[in-house]
Amino acid sequence: MTTTAKTPPSTALRPPIAGRTAIVAGNGQLPVAVAESLRKLGDNPLIVAIKGEAEPELYAGEHAEISIVELGGLVKILKAEGISNVVLAGGIRHRPEFRAALRPGNGNLVALYRFLRAFRLGDDGLLRAVIATIESYGFRVLGAHEIVPDILAPAPGTLTRKRADQESVANMHAARQAAIMIGSLDIGQAAIAIGRRVVALEGVEGTDAMLQRVAELRHAKRINRKGGVLVKCAKPQQEVRADLPAIGVSTVENAVKAGLKGIAIEARRTLILGYGETVAAADKAGLFIETFEQEPS
What positions does the domain LpxI N-terminal occupy (predicted)? Predict the structure, then answer.
């Protein structure tokens, strides 16, 4: 059985990272958390906000803004600002129109062409190609967890007051196997099992939309049994410097709406955005949050 781990991870910060860091910021709270941690370390990060994606609060500090179709200008910005390190953080809702992007004025056309070719790949292939392109110009790409190590889910255990019952353990196993399978196909990172049967797989719509879909199935009485578990884990071939699976308060809230009993995530390879708030929300709702070990290769 799992052990109980109710205390949050250590709040100790790592030593300052050599050189200035830029955060290429998509949507969500992860770029905000990375920026705050860098400032606590004494760094003055440059925010490169993706237009239409980045959170408004990121514009308060030193920043630049580019649209997806101006990614060729990213290299120029990084060089002009003396950047050494780059963090890719946050999501991207919309992929660019390939031909519309290839026009004068969008920065380094060689870099832009590489970026946009990558957007034709699956998510993992996209991230690997984008990282390779950035590093080919001499920049170092870091994972968000390398700057905010405490954001990673802790060692296997139970994070909440409530633990998984026998039925939930069986659901965790079923959903985990499904999540690993779709991850190996570069489709998604999450699955939901109810009554020991997988009822939903994550696709490009993301976890919250999948949970909403399950809530609608409940309401339509397409899913008769109560309970169920959401499982999130990294893809077997995951590029760990970007797009690690993540949960937060909204995940808990949507799991409640979907009628689930709990959430299980992969230890040390899943991000918890707002650890204290997320665990408190689960405790208040009577849900469990469990962490499990990576599948042996």
Answer: 21-151
